[in-house]
Design goal:
Elements (H helix, E strand, L loop, with lengths): L1 H65 L5 H30 L5 H17 L1
Helix pairs in contact: 1-2
């Protein structure tokens, strides 16, 4: 009888140790992933800012090139008009896609959950 109690205590201690180790592993894994995600986010922001500057320089170069044909103020006005037209078209397309998306609720997941509950109730 004493041997069974001793073994049960050993199993309990090992199980507690295993749970602690699994929790520590999960914490370390989450920390590693969060660090990698933070670095990726920071580099992504830097890349976005640099791309924004590059696009500005491309538009400035287009205006300078166009100023060889027409006066500078007209070249800047033409480039600004093109930017506004492209931005308006992108906004229009974004609104159409947003309307197509429908409600934000995950309707397929809700439907599947309802079917699962119905199936479980019918077999109970």
């Amino acid at each position: 009888m004493l041997r069974i109690v001793t073994r049960a205590e050993k199993v309990k201690a090992r199980l507690a140790s295993l749970v602690r180790l699994n929790l520590e592993l999960a914490r370390l894994e989450a920390k590693r992933k969060a660090t990698a995600l933070g670095i990726a986010l920071g580099l992504g922001v830097v890349a976005g800012v640099l791309m924004l500057y590059a696009i500005g320089f491309v538009f400035a170069a287009a205006a300078v090139a166009l100023s060889e044909i027409v006066s500078l103020w007209l070249a800047l006005l033409v480039v600004a008009g093109v930017i506004l037209l492209v931005g308006a078209a992108a906004g229009f397309v974004a609104v159409r896609f947003a309307r197509k998306a429908g409600p934000a609720a995950p309707t397929q997941a809700i439907d599947e959950a309802e079917r699962t509950v119905k199936t479980l109730r019918s077999h109970a």
